[in-house]
Design goal:
The chain is of the alpha+beta class. It contains 6 helices and 9 strands, in the order H-H-H-H-H-E-E-E-E-E-E-E-E-H-E. It is globular. About 7% of the residues have low confidence.
């Protein structure tokens, strides 16, 4: 019986191994390609998660601030003039967020990744409206987990895009969302944070319910 040369046998086994490796890679690609496509097809959702993480860190910073200040929340530490203000003070939001920046890893977390008109601050002193993507609720309470603390700044008040400054919101001045920050989401929506530390994506149709849950007649919002 004729036998093949040793080198032919070795090459044959090597070819079989290469074909097996190629087949394994082909199978892996079948799994990886759909995953990559899906991720690229969900830009709005991915950015929403990033904004939720930003606001979750902001809430944590507020809690740490209160812990070091005998329980006084950030909005309570502002002067009474700001608590009851009806003026359009354009710097109030910046004053608010500066209070607890030291409790965050970086002031860059005040900017949503898709907020093209805002840039991340590199220092506390630098923080201005141009470094903020989030509003602050100055009439917040500590009476429950649904107490609103912060939210995305792309608000509409009574159908008009909210300008920087202090705004009262109530049933006569309803709020909604523009499409500025989350254009990848089909329905107008934005991220909000609450006193129990949770954040959520709130669609426009649910915003009136969020306002009603706050108690009181009006909400005082500082919008950057």
């Amino acid at each position: 019986m004729r036998t093949l040369p040793r080198n032919v046998v070795v090459y044959g086994f090597t070819l079989i191994e290469l074909l097996c490796i190629a087949a394994i890679f082909a199978v892996l690609l079948l799994f990886l390609i759909p995953t990559t496509t899906n991720r690229r097809g969900r830009p709005g959702r991915d950015v929403t998660v990033a904004c939720m993480n930003n606001q979750r860190q902001i809430v944590l910073g507020e809690m740490l601030y209160a812990s070091d200040n005998n329980g006084a929340q950030v909005w309570r530490s502002l002067s009474k003039r700001f608590q009851t203000s009806t003026s359009q003070d354009p710097n109030l939001a910046a004053n608010y967020f500066r209070r607890f920046t030291n409790y965050l890893e970086s002031p860059g977390g005040f900017v949503c990744p898709t907020d093209k008109s805002r840039t991340a601050a590199t220092s506390v002193a630098q923080i201005a409206n141009s470094n903020l993507s989030y509003f602050a609720h100055l009439s917040a309470t500590e009476d429950g987990p649904t107490s609103l603390l912060t939210g995305d700044r792309h608000l509409r008040i009574t159908g008009t895009t909210a300008a920087p400054g202090v705004h009262w919101v109530d049933t006569n001045n309803p709020i909604g969302w523009t499409k500025e920050l989350h254009s990848g989401i089909k329905q107008p929506a934005g991220v909000m944070s609450f006193a129990d530390g949770h954040t959520e994506l709130v669609k426009e149709e649910r915003m009136s319910a969020v306002v009603q849950r706050q108690g009181g007649d009006k909400l005082l919002l500082a919008i950057p």
